[in-house]
Structures are given as C-alpha cells and as structure tokens.
Amino acid sequence: MNPKPIxxxxxxxxxxxxxxxxxxxxxxxxxxxxKKETPxxxxxxxxxxxKLDETAIGQDWLAAGQLALQRPxxxxxxxxxxxxxxxxxxxxLGYRLEAKRGEQLVVSLEMKARQTIQVFIDLFEAxxxxxxxxxxxSADTAATTLTYVVDEDMAHLLRIQPELLRGGTYTITIEAQxxxxxPIPGKSSRHIAxxxxxxxxxxxxxxxxxxxxAPRGTPVVASADGVVSRxxxxxxxxxxxxxxxxxxxxxxxxxxxxxxxxxxxxxxxxGDTLGLVGNTGNAKGTGPHLHFGIYRYGRGATNxxxxxxxxxxxxxxIKVDASHIGNWVRVSSKMANVxxxxxxxxxxxTSLPKNTPLQVTGAAxxxxxxxxxDQTEAYIISSLVEGIAKPIAVKxxxxxxxxxxxxxxxxxxxxxxxxxxxILVVAVNGNFELVRQPDGRLGWVQSAD
Length: 449
Fold this sequence. Notes:
Blueprint: H1 10-24, H2 27-34, H3 39-49, H4 56-70, E1 73-74, E2 79-85, E3 93-99, E4 103-112, E5 119-125, E6 134-140, E7 145-149, E8 154-162, E9 168-178, E10 192-194, E11 199-200, E12 205-206, E13 210-213, E14 219-221, E15 226-234, E16 238-245, E17 250-260, E18 267-268, E19 273-277, E20 289-296, E21 300-302, H5 305-308, E22 328-331, E23 335-339, E24 348-353, E25 357-364, E26 367-371, E27 377-381, E28 385-387, E29 393-396, E30 401-404, E31 413-417, E32 422-429, E33 432-436, E34 442-446
Parallel strand pairs: 1-3
Antiparallel strand pairs: 2-9, 2-25, 3-8, 4-7, 4-9, 5-6, 5-8, 10-13, 11-12, 13-20, 14-19, 15-16, 15-18, 16-17, 17-19, 17-20, 20-21, 22-25, 22-28, 23-24, 25-26, 26-27, 29-32, 30-31, 32-33, 33-34
C-alpha cells in the first residue's frame, strides 16, 4: 500500500494563491460572509468563486472534507492526537464521539507551522441521515478553542481541515466538561448513590434526579447564577428550593434540605449557599442527602448527571516515537491488526503481514494513525511497527526496471533502475517492494529479484 503523492510546481502554488486571494477579496464572497456563512463555508465559496473547485487540488480539498464526515474515527473522551497536515496533499480529520445533553464539548487545537495557517473546526450533530449532518458550531484558528453545550443525547461529528497548500503539525484535544458546578462543594460524581431512572414506589415511577449523600448540615450551593423562584415544603421533597438558571433555560431543584437559607425572588451567584443537606420529606429514614434535579423549560425533567459530572480520566499522553509521523514504517510482527480507533476494543479494519509498509499520519496514546491503500485512515499499536532505516534485504536487479511512485503497475515512473543495480528493500506490499535509492529517495519496484 502506498498513498499516491500529489506534486505541484512552484508556478501552480503561486497561481493558486493568487486565485484564492482574488476570490477572498471578491464582493460576492464578502456578501456570503455577512450571510452568516461559517469560516469553512466562506472559504469553500472563495474556492468556487476563484474556480479552484474545477482544479484537481480544489476538488481533492472539497472531497477530503466530505470524506472526513463520511468516515469519521470513533473516539472516547478525553482524547488527544498529534499529527501532520502535508501542504501538497489535502487532508481532513473526522472524529465521531458520543455526547450527552448538558455536557460541554471543548475542542482545543494547537498548530506548529512555518507559515500562518488557517484551520477550520466544525462540529455536527450526526442525526439519522449520515449524508446531512447538522452543523452546530464552527471556528477557525482565529479561535484555537471551540466550545459547545450539547443539547441532545446523540453522536456528534468533528471535522478539522486546513486551508489549501498549507501544512504543519497539529495537536487536537477533545474533552467533555460539566456545564454546572457540583451542588455540594468538595463532593463529586463518586458520591452519587442513586442515579437518574432508578425505580421508585415499587416501580410506579422512576427517579428524576440524582442523590448525593453528605453529612447533615453540609452546605448546598447554587450550581449556576440565577434567581430563586420558589422556597417551599412538600410531602415528597421536604424542604425544597427551585433555582431558575435563566442563561440555560432550565430550573434546578434542590430537595430533602434540612434548612433553606434563601428566599423566593433572591438573585444568587454561582457557589452561593442555598441551604443545608438533610433528609426531610419522603427521605425520612434514609441518610442525609441532596436530591438534585433539572427541569428544562417546557420540556420536563432531564438527567442531571452529565451537567455536573467531571471525568476523572486524564487526557491520554502521546507515548510513541513522534519522529515517525509523516514518514513510513513497516509491520514488525508476523501479523498485525489495524483497528478503526486507537483502542484494542475498537473494530478490526484489517490484518497485515510482516514488512507491510504504512505511512504514519498521526499518533494517539500508544497508537499510530496510518493511511491505508483505499485512503482510509486507521490505527495500529506502536509496538507492532518499526522504522525503515534498516533494509530487510539487499538485491541486485538482473533486468532494468522503472522506479514507481506508488505500488501499482500503472503508477508514474520517477526513475529508471539499470540492470545490475543493487537495491535496498525496506518494505514489501504484495508483489511490490519499497526501495531506497542511494540519495535517500523512496520508490516502488515491481517483482524485484
């Protein structure tokens, strides 16, 4: 396998940049921006205005953006990956992640490049039709962080793509963070003993909140800025407080309190004490705890857990040899599994025999992201590959042969190898061998002997 390289002359570089500048400066493109086009859409419009969508490289750029959404890599949060965007080969990253209502997705991008580079970040709800995902948030490198509060439980797609003819090293970090402060200071999700949906009253109803256990008299605080809408006592909730979170459009419900320390109509700030933990109402006979619920305006109760849960999982570190990124490696074991995500539990994409070459495009934790023959990108554990500095064989050609730019009989010829020439074989793909020239260049030879 060998991704086909795309080469452009310096003249074409200059021509394309001139066209892009012309397109970006056009009245039509500016009108598109003021029509609330996203940065990605505005850039795509500029390509079409400059007629770059009729060129091979422009078409490749647009196709890469679509492919990233059609073949996203499934990831588990928190997630971190580093890799390389080549300037001469349009590439886009696509990730699929499961998200819960009330979480805040935080996407951070760090770029290292010799020139200023614009990178577009777009977040979509996957929806039911993969061909038409709904864009919900966008940014470019003018803002290196994108944040989005998830509105519904569903998979989301994240696409990251640089502008044409600009390359550099990227590091992308994706996290899910709570949107509300935990209602009992010093406690966390570990102290939740009863969760959303647990049966109540012998199964006649289900639990519409979470129960957080703490000693009687522990302060209960406002999880957000808001207005106290109600302070009352009910048979089920005991001493309760309702707090309107006007910014997010929902009410926060605090129940079973021992004492209420605010009054209706009072404005409170994040972290202000509202009351004290108790076991009033139908919690009598149980240990002191806070029942915490969230009710969305006009939509009823929703699971509070994602709103307040702070994951204890650390952001995974990159544990591979980063010098391989952007270069070739080869399979070092007898057989190696390639998976659709950087996890041993991820779906198997294919298995490859020893000495198969792979081009590394990125790395996550202790996995390499590699490009496959069909241009799909997948992952292989770093312990199953090695560099190609040391040849696996030295052969002498009995006949002259063309040196090809990819492992295909109709590939372009980049040089001619004369009969009797010694070749250094560094990897093997079927009946093609990846060889290194004395000047360090790599190329492919068919059926070398």
